[in-house]
């Protein structure tokens, strides 16, 4: 502890005060002396010049050139030295001359070869390495990433190396060239045994011999790197995989010489460095008695023929000066040093500093210049661990800015004598004000050491981003930004917009104004101002998506993919989705901005803002106050979980509030529709009218010489109008408070101080944003330090608590200052002492950190096979948070606009809590219809502190009955006193308890329990074999494999009928076809068990093959099944009887690690697709079939059921290893179900789990956290871990504090400060992707959408007119010539309809609906009515029709109608039925018994409202006098009359001159009528996959498509329309039409989807027209 404190004081406190200089005990005296003298020179030289020379430009003339020369020399030498260490030559000299003659001659020959290799004439500069046996670290490479050794050509024995460090030479900086001899002559180095677990044990010397380097000495392994390695100056930027070799097991190493050192820099892994092996450490002995020592140095070339020797290594050089990698960095450092010298000397000679302050100013100059040579690492404002290259430029840049401001303010104070501009009584050009500002900056500059020690100023790039963002938000009304580029882009866009509008405003102000006339140019300015503000508010600050869209349009083929890349098929759909969203918004803005501009120009030019004053102003103020109060206060409070912290439940509840498990998307409630419409009116109508009203009344006053004059007035009018409009469009949550307060304040309190209402609103909006921030900071502070709920995490917290009380006034001042500069107020070490941190943008984190999931796409193959990277739960579970991010990207913006997350503003933080998911959502940018957010997922199995805080946010307080110390209870639906009091002292609040979001439910089962006994393993092996057979027979390459000669030759032995494989891997306990007599798996026993399955699978092929017992197909199946089981046994180490070994082998095969260990299986290499497409899917499918076995053990004994199950799983289930990129792609593509076998090795656990994911709607609790609490805790963690270097994993600042959720917030920091398992990239959600919002407000307005709307409206009009507007002429003729008929659609609407109509005879109309070609003809078997004449049986036999679609026809013909079902009968009883002369059945031809039934029905209906219900198709029928029945009712009548009546009907119909073909067609075709889904809960989404097969489907293809397994992301919604293609009726005699429940089920086709829905959940719309 003491050494850590000394290190912090030395490297933190003292280095921060001095600018980087401190006494480093780990460095030599020479390095420390150079640092000291250099720092003293930078301090004393300007001070001496100031004291010795008169205050004139002579000081500048002497000081600046000296500093320039000094920095140029130091930077150039430092850069050249690093280049020499990267690419230079190593020269070795013997320091001990006591060698024998033979050794000298050997050394002479070696030096001759070295001279030839490394001479100046040899271009490229090779690297020669001899033995590295020295006390110091060998001077090779740029960081400790590689090890090396040497080979003595004269002695092949080995000796131990005294000190071995792993160094790497970056391939980009290492020049590798071939020597003259090509290889080392006379050297035949032996192979070192590999230290890795690679199965081959060593690498071939011929494969890795490159450029004269025998790489057989090398064991390839990922390079390790220490996180705190001071030598690696850019450890956070790059990583490397390098060549490693370890002489682990060798005890005697005299010399190892390597002619070339080759490195591989793949930038794949960042692993922690490993030490030397224990064997090597044990055998390292002191070498003082060595016969010779080698002295090494580098050649530093000064001129082409002149060089000097460099005797120190890179570690020493890095300790001496910081490394500048690029030439531009060196140039920038020199320029900044000269600027610091120039500006500092100018201020000195100008006399701004006197007495001791001269020395203090010289100290500041020295610290700024010294930081360019040796910066403070880590700095108090550094956002990352390790060396920060940017932080070195902070001090000189800020110094130059402050000096420039001092000089400008002094110049302005001396040259300004009049107070021309005044605002609110303050003269901004007052010399006294300028002098005060100058003196304040002087004091701030002198305090630089303290400022940088505390960390009040961020690094340069953060400051630029922060400054641009703050100016854009508060001056131009912009949004928060996501990066430095986005901040500059958004700021420039705002400047361009102001420049475009300024000219119009200036021209309008120059025009003549009077009381009743406003210039037309000003009206044009107002219209353009609203349009441009609307467009800017809808654009994201990040231009990357826009640039990508432009690139894809201009260069559509620029993204060429490598077809050989295995990841080329894995495509992320998000970038394309974002580009489409941006494209739609741009097209919509192109139209809407024109409409808005013209509309508001017309409103403004109508003089409504001048004639209706002042009544219009009062009306608008009252309107904005009332609408804003209801929209942003009343409705959100009523919808909260605890309204006003008084009620125990929401007063406005959603439909899902009382549901235990949510099954569908959130239902849109009436108050959500009210909220979105009020919000739409408020920000698109009310606020623009208020701004235009103030522009009209204030513009001329502002431009008068008494105020700001015309030039400055036009600028202020433009900026104020743009700011107010953009902010109201983007985030109108608190705008109504600002408007109402400003009006009341400057109307009744301080009217004399008003500077026109436009400027008042502009400045008050800035003030209110700072006041809101101050309110949140104070609320966080008081909540955090409240004595009755303080939680001390350490002894320091208890110590700091009482000392914080006397400093409460200082705390308030700090809060005000931090609110003004928008800086976090963080608790020091998590205690009650608060300090102000440096300014940050809304994004907060300066690194663009996001989680990179470890899978097979970014790890080496060897590590996948041996080490199983990423097998910990956190890495595997991160995919769920990634999918949650995608779900939020789709719906977050729309849900926010619907008010489902309450009020929100820029920078707000929310926590989504579910059963196992706990994620923090940070809203960064909020625009008009867009939200940019970042999600941070916490651990599934969190720490104890995290669990306590999760309990706090999930537990209910409704049952609390406390009142102080007693428990009298509480009023109904109200909170108790204690609960209400406690809720007010929290930094968070629960907004919603049932927020519905699409996600995955996770089910994990222990694989050990499912495979514990041998019988269960035998079942798995059986399904494994059957899976292999299925995939090989279903493969399109089967014929090619059967004809492959190599495979035939390899399977020649297997073709023998008496062949038996007696591999010891096979086990009678787990192999069902094990032949006990032959002690193996014989072909005969295999055929006994699996031949039937092979024959069935072969019969399902389109082109069946010979599947007899002696066929080549059976031989191939037998060979594959034996190979697959042998691979399983090999992976299980031939110990299948052991459960742990069996699971290990099963997991190895599941992830695709197949080891072909038998020569009998090498035929598989003829086509590796057999492994990839047959064996691997077989083992994966067997796991799913094994799971199904537990639910229905004997079901899969039937080959047809098993085949259909495998086919169904292939279509609807993704089975893959979690490390496979296909797994991530399937999850992000919203696959309905996924299955994986997970091997968890974490915290000493070693278990296997079967993970099943099912896509469903999840329910979350939404908790809003005080954003200043989050920012403060984040800033405190960054300072504690980076600057104060607190590595204690149980530090007090991360202990649980339920009132502030301290642990959850701190653990969500970027790694390594926090430990989230997933941090998403900054993601933008657009409102256009929210389907429910589009139904309320409509979608994006574009030319294509307008065209589609017009076309669809025209089609609807044609349908309506065709169905109900035939009011004159010959209806029969109109039907015959192509009008809407009962069985045909309008040709213009559906071209697939076919109709054959004969006017002369009674031929039957035949037709096919849109789905007629998708299913085979099904004979109609009508049900029997029975004797009860129940409404149910009648309903099941009559065709429905909605009264809304009934056509006007003869009032003498009626039929019964209903809207939904037999339980809800139409109150009218009858609706008109149209006539048809083309196809009719005369009732006179019916038997008398049937006529009596119909008469009974007609008599029953008027007396009973729950009787027979029927709905007509809206098609023509004959008059009642002819007693004819329309053709569209024939099948309904057949069902109503029963079999006998149906036959009579058909016989009566066939009595005409219709042909037999027409008769059969009429019997086969049914009328297709449309329905509309009214209740989506009545949809039977899983009936098609039921294992009990309750329904008989008309076609198997339709069955597979009629459920959620085929719908994927699509689901039936309320209002969708489709046509009925099949019906299942209860108690039907026909099994194909029989419903398994007491309700009729309809099979509906909606577009290309099939839906089974109960009839009570639909509304009948009539026949297809």
Describe what is shown at a glance:
By secondary structure, the protein is α+β, with helices and mostly antiparallel strands.
Question: Could you please describe the fold and organization of this structure?
Answer:
- With 1665 residues, this protein is of the alpha+beta class.
- It contains 49 helices and 32 strands.
- Helix 34 packs across helix 35 (1139-1150).
- It starts with a helix and ends with a strand.
- 43% of the residues are buried.
Q: Which stretches are low in confidence, meaning pLDDT under 50 for 5 or more residues running? A: 95-291, 1366-1565
Percentage of residues in helical conformation: 40-55%
Nearest-angstrom radius of gyration? Answer: 42 Å
Instruction: Tell me the number of strands.
Output: 32
Category by helix and strand content: alpha+beta
- Give average pLDDT, whole number: 75
N- and C-termini, Cα separation: 86 Å
Identify the overall geometry: globular
Share in β-strands: 5-15%
- Main beta sheet, described? 9 strands, mixed
Oligomer: single chain
How many helices? The count is: 49
Attribute tags:
single chain, 1665 residues, alpha+beta, 6-stranded mixed β-sheet, 49 helices
Summarize the helices and strands and which ones pair or pack.
Blueprint: H1 2-18, H2 29-52, H3 57-87, E1 90-94, H4 101-118, E2 209-210, E3 213-214, E4 219-220, E5 243-244, H5 278-283, E6 294-303, E7 306-310, H6 314-320, H7 327-349, H8 356-370, H9 394-415, E8 422-423, E9 426-427, H10 431-446, H11 448-454, H12 460-474, H13 484-510, H14 520-537, H15 544-554, H16 574-605, H17 608-611, H18 615-639, H19 670-702, H20 709-730, H21 735-749, H22 756-785, H23 795-804, H24 808-821, E10 825-827, E11 834-836, H25 861-866, H26 873-897, E12 909-913, E13 918-927, E14 930-937, H27 944-954, H28 977-983, E15 988-1006, H29 1007-1010, H30 1014-1034, H31 1038-1042, H32 1045-1050, E16 1060-1061, E17 1081-1082, H33 1083-1099, H34 1112-1131, H35 1139-1150, H36 1169-1191, H37 1199-1212, E18 1213-1215, H38 1221-1228, E19 1233-1242, E20 1245-1265, H39 1267-1283, H40 1302-1307, E21 1318-1319, E22 1323-1326, H41 1331-1337, H42 1343-1364, H43 1371-1376, H44 1431-1435, E23 1454-1458, E24 1465-1472, E25 1480-1482, H45 1488-1500, E26 1524-1526, H46 1530-1549, H47 1556-1564, E27 1569-1573, H48 1596-1601, H49 1604-1607, E28 1617-1626, E29 1634-1635, E30 1641-1646, E31 1649-1654, ...
Parallel strand pairs: 18-19, 28-29
Antiparallel strand pairs: 1-6, 2-3, 4-5, 6-7, 8-9, 10-11, 12-13, 12-20, 13-14, 14-21, 14-22, 15-20, 16-17, 19-20, 23-24, 25-26, 27-28, 27-32, 28-30, 30-31
């Amino acid at each position: 502890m003491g050494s850590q404190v000394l290190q912090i004081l030395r490297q933190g406190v003292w280095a921060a005060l001095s600018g980087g200089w401190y006494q480093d005990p780990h460095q030599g005296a020479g390095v420390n002396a150079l640092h000291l003298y250099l720092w003293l020179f930078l301090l004393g030289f300007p001070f001496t010049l100031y004291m010795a020379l008169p205050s004139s430009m002579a000081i500048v003339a002497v000081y600046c050139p000296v500093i320039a020369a000094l920095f140029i020399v130091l930077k150039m030498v430092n850069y050249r030295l690093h280049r020499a260490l990267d690419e230079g030559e190593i020269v070795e000299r013997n320091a001990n001359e006591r060698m024998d003659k033979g050794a000298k001659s050997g050394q002479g020959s070696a030096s001759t070869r070295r001279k030839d290799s490394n001479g100046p004439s040899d271009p490229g500069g090779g690297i020669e390495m001899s033995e590295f046996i020295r006390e110091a670290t060998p001077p090779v490479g740029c960081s400790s990433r590689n090890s090396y050794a040497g080979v003595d050509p004269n002695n092949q024995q080995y000796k131990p190396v005294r000190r071995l460090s792993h160094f790497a030479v970056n391939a980009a900086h290492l020049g590798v060239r071939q020597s003259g001899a090509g290889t080392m002559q006379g050297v035949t180095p032996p192979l070192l045994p590999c230290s890795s677990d690679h199965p081959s044990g060593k690498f071939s010397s011929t494969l890795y011999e490159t450029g004269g380097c025998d790489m057989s000495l090398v064991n390839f392994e990922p390079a390790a790197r220490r996180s705190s390695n001071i030598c690696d100056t850019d450890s956070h930027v790059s990583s490397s995989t390098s060549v490693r070799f370890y002489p682990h097991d060798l005890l005697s190493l005299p010399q190892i010489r390597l002619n070339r050192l080759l490195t591989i820099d793949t930038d794949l892994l960042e692993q922690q460095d490993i030490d030397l092996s224990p064997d090597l450490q044990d055998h390292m002995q002191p070498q003082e008695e060595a016969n010779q020592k080698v002295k090494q140095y580098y050649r530093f070339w000064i001129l082409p023929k002149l060089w000097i020797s460099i005797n120190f290594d890179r570690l020493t050089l890095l300790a001496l000066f910081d490394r500048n990698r690029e030439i531009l960095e060196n140039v920038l450092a020199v320029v900044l040093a000269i600027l610091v010298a120039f500006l500092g000397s100018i201020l000195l000679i100008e006399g701004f500093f006197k007495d001791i302050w001269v020395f203090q100013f010289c100290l500041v100059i020295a610290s700024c210049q010294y930081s360019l040579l040796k910066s403070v690492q880590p700095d108090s404002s550094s956002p990352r661990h390790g060396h920060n290259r940017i932080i070195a430029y902070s001090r000189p840049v800020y110094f130059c800015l402050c000096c420039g401001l001092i000089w400008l303010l002094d110049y302005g104070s001396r040259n300004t004598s009049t107070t021309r501009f005044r605002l609110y009584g303050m003269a901004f050009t007052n010399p006294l004000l300028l002098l005060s500002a100058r003196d304040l900056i002087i004091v701030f500059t002198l305090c630089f050491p303290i400022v940088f020690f505390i960390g009040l100023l961020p690094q340069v790039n953060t400051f630029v981003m922060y400054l641009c963002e703050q100016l854009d938000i508060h001056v131009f009304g912009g949004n928060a930004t996501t990066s430095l580029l986005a901040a500059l882009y958004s700021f420039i866009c705002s400047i361009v917009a102001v420049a475009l509008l300024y000219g119009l405003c200036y021209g309008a102000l120059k025009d003549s104004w009077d009381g009743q006339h406003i210039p037309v140019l000003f009206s044009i300015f107002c219209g353009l101002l609203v349009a441009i503000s609307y467009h800017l508010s809808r654009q994201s600050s990040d231009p990357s998506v826009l640039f990508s869209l432009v690139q894809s349009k201009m260069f559509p083929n620029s993204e060429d993919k490598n077809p050989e890349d295995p990841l080329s098929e894995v495509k992320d759909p998000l970038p394309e989705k974002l580009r489409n969203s941006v494209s739609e918004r741009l097209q919509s803005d192109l139209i809407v901005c024109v409409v808005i501009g013209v509309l508001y120009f017309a409103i403004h030019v109508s003089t409504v803002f001048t004639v209706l004053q002042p009544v219009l102003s009062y009306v608008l103020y009252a309107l904005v106050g009332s609408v804003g109060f209801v929209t942003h206060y009343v409705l959100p409070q009523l919808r909260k979980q605890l309204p006003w912290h008084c009620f125990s439940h929401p007063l406005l509840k959603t439909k899902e509030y009382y549901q235990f498990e949510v099954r569908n998307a959130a239902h849109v409630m009436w108050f959500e529709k009210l909220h979105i419409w009020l919000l739409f009116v408020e920000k698109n109508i009310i606020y623009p009218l208020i701004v235009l009203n103030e522009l009209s009344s204030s513009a001329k006053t502002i431009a008068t010489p008494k105020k700001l004059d015309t030039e400055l007035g036009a600028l202020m009018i433009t900026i104020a109008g743009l700011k107010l409009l953009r902010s109201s469009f983007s985030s109108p949550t608190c705008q109504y408070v600002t408007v109402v307060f400003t009006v009341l304040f400057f109307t009744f309190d301080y009217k004399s101080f008003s500077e026109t209402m436009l400027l008042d609103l502009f400045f008050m909006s800035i003030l209110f944003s700072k006041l809101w921030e101050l309110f949140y900071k104070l609320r966080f502070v008081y909540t955090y330090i409240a004595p009755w709920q303080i939680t001390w995490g350490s002894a320091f917290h208890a110590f700091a608590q009482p000392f914080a009380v006397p400093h409460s006034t200082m705390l308030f001042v700090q809060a005000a200052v931090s609110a003004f500069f928008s800086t976090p107020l963080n608790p020091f070490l998590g205690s009650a002492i608060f300090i102000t941190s440096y300014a940050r943008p809304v994004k907060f984190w300066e690194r663009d950190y996001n989680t990179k999931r470890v899978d097979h796409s970014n790890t080496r193959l060897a590590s996948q096979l041996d080490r199983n990277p990423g097998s910990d739960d956190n890495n595997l579970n991160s995919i769920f948070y990634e999918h949650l991010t995608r779900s939020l990207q789709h719906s977050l913006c729309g849900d926010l606009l619907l008010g489902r997350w309450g009020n929100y503003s820029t920078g707000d933080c929310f926590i989504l809590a579910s059963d196992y998911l706990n994620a923090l959502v940070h809203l960064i940018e909020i625009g008009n219809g867009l939200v940019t957010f970042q999600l941070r997922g916490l651990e599934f199995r969190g720490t104890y502190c995290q669990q306590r805080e999760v309990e706090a946010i999930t537990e209910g307080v409704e049952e609390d009955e406390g009142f102080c110390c007693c428990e009298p209870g509480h009023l109904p639906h109200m909170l108790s006193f204690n609960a209400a009091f406690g809720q007010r002292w929290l930094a968070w609040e629960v907004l919603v308890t049932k927020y519905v979001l699409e996600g995955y439910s996770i089910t994990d089962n222990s694989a050990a329990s499912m495979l514990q006994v041998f019988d269960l393993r035998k079942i798995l092996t059986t399904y494994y074999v059957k899976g292999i057979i299925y995939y090989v027979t279903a493969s399109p390459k089967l014929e090619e494999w059967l004809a492959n000669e190599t495979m035939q030759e390899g399977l020649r032995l297997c073709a023998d009928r008496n062949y038996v494989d007696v591999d010891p891997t096979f086990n009678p306990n787990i192999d069902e076809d094990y032949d006990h007599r032959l002690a193996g798996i014989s072909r005969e026993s295999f055929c006994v068990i699996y031949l039937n399955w092979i024959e069935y699978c072969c019969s399902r092929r389109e082109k069946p093959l010979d599947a007899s017992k002696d066929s080549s197909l059976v031989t191939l199946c037998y060979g594959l099944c034996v190979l697959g089981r042998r691979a399983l046994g090999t992976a299980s180490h031939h110990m299948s009887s052991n459960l742990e070994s069996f699971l290990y082998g099963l997991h190895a095969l599941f992830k695709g690690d197949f080891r072909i260990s038998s020569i009998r299986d090498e035929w598989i290499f003829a086509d590796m697709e057999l492994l990839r497409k047959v064996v691997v899917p077989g083992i994966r499918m067997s796991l799913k079939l094994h799971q199904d076995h537990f639910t229905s053990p004997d079901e899969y004994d039937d080959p047809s059921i098993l085949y259909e199950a495998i086919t169904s799983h292939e279509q609807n289930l993704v089975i893959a290893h979690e490390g496979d990129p296909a797994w991530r792609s399937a999850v992000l593509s919203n696959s309905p179900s996924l299955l994986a076998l997970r091997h968890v090795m974490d915290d000493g656990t070693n278990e296997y789990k079967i993970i099943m994911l099912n896509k469903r709607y999840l329910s979350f609790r939404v908790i809003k956290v005080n954003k200043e609490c989050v920012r403060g805790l984040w800033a405190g963690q960054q300072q504690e871990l980076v600057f104060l270097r607190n590595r204690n994993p149980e530090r007090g600042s991360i202990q649980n504090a339920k009132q502030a959720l301290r642990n959850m917030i701190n653990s969500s920091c970027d790694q390594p400060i926090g430990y989230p398992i997933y941090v998403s990239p900054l993601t933008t959600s657009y409102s256009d992707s929210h389907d429910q919002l589009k139904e309320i407000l409509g979608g994006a307005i574009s030319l294509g959408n307008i065209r589609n709307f017009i076309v669809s409206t025209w089609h609807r009009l044609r349908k309506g007119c065709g169905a109900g507007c035939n009011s004159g002429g010959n209806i029969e003729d109109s039907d015959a010539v192509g009008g809407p008929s009962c069985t045909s659609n309008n040709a213009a609407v559906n071209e697939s309809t076919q109709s054959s109509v004969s006017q002369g005879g009674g031929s039957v109309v035949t037709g096919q609906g849109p789905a007629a070609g998708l299913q085979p003809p099904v004979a109609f078997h009508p049900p029997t009515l029975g004797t009860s004449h129940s409404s149910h049986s009648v309903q099941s036999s009559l065709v429905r029709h909605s009264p809304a679609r009934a056509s006007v026809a003869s009032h003498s013909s009626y039929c019964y109608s209903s809207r939904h079902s037999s339980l809800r009968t139409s109150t009218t009883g009858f609706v008109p039925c149209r006539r048809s002369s083309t196809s009719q059945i005369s009732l006179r031809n019916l038997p008398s018994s049937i006529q009596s039934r119909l008469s009974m029905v007609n008599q029953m209906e008027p007396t009973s409202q729950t009787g027979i219900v029927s709905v007509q198709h809206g098609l023509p029928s004959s008059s009642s006098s002819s007693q004819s029945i329309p053709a569209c009712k024939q099948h309904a009548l057949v069902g109503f009359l029963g079999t006998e009546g149906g036959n009579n009907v058909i016989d009566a119909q066939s009595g005409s001159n219709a042909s037999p073909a027409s008769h059969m067609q009429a019997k086969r075709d049914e009328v297709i009528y449309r329905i509309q889904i009214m209740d989506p809960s009545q949809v039977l989404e899983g009936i098609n996959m039921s294992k009990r097969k309750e329904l008989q489907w008309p076609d198997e293809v339709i069955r597979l498509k009629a459920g959620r397994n085929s719908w994927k992301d699509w689901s039936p919604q309320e209002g969708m329309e489709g046509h009925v293609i099949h019906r299942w009726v209860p108690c039907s005699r026909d099994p194909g039409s029989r419903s398994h429940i007491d309700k009729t089920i309809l099979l509906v086709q909606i577009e290309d989807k099939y839906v089974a829905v109960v009839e009570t959940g639909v509304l009948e719309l009539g026949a297809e027209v």
